[in-house]
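Tokens as discussed.
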């Protein structure tokens, strides 16, 4: 069973959805810290909306969580974590106010990235031990954790017309959708395909797996 690490989005929608009642705080260890950061940055109280509708970057827009079949959406929500500069760690279904805060903003004399790194890294054994972690984070966000505690860490590289894709946010969203919709396991990652991207290599390391996907460039993403 996979655990997905999904990216934060500072770009956010001010949308207000009814019946968003799920809690924000995923880990009891960090709830007091998250509430303290929230009080510092939340200046206006707006009705909350689920993270999957609030976040607006290329990953979340391409994932289109709101149109996924319920079993697929539930699978992603139940097997994912999303790092947050305000809340530390969230589920995609977390109910959030409009709060577009960046990792570089300061809190108690340090960046929010540095603040949360101090608190999330020690929780890495609890979060990742024995898990197959698919990492869709930037290198900056991945630095919040110690992924060496995972049984396997799977990362994807995408190439279009022989050149590595520099901004693979959309590609990561399509990859996640495919894995979730098809219910793929670790030994079936080579089946992933979307548009004209196909898996060409699965490179196995001791703890890390690199999945190489290539496209002839027939479609623009």
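Sequence:
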């Amino acid at each position: 069973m996979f655990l997905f690490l999904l990216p934060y989005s500072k770009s956010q929608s001010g949308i207000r959805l009814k019946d968003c009642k799920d809690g924000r705080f995923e880990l009891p260890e960090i709830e007091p810290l998250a509430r303290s950061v929230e009080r510092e940055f939340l200046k206006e109280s707006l009705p909350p909306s689920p993270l999957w509708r609030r976040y607006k970057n290329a990953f979340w827009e391409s994932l289109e969580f709101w149109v996924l079949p319920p079993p697929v959406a539930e699978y992603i929500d139940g097997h994912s974590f999303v790092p947050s500069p305000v809340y530390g760690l969230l589920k995609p279904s977390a109910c959030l106010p409009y709060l577009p805060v960046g990792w570089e903003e300061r809190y108690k004399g340090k960046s929010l990235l540095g603040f949360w790194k101090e608190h999330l890294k020690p929780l890495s054994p609890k979060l990742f031990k024995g898990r197959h972690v698919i990492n869709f984070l930037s290198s900056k966000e991945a630095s919040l954790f110690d992924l060496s505690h995972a049984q396997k860490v799977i990362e994807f590289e995408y190439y279009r017309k022989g050149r590595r894709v520099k901004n693979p946010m959309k590609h990561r969203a399509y990859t996640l959708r495919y894995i979730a919709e098809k219910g793929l396991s670790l030994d079936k990652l080579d089946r992933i395909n979307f548009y004209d991207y196909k898996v060409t290599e699965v490179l196995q390391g001791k703890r890390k797996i690199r999945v190489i996907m290539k496209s002839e460039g027939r479609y623009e993403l």
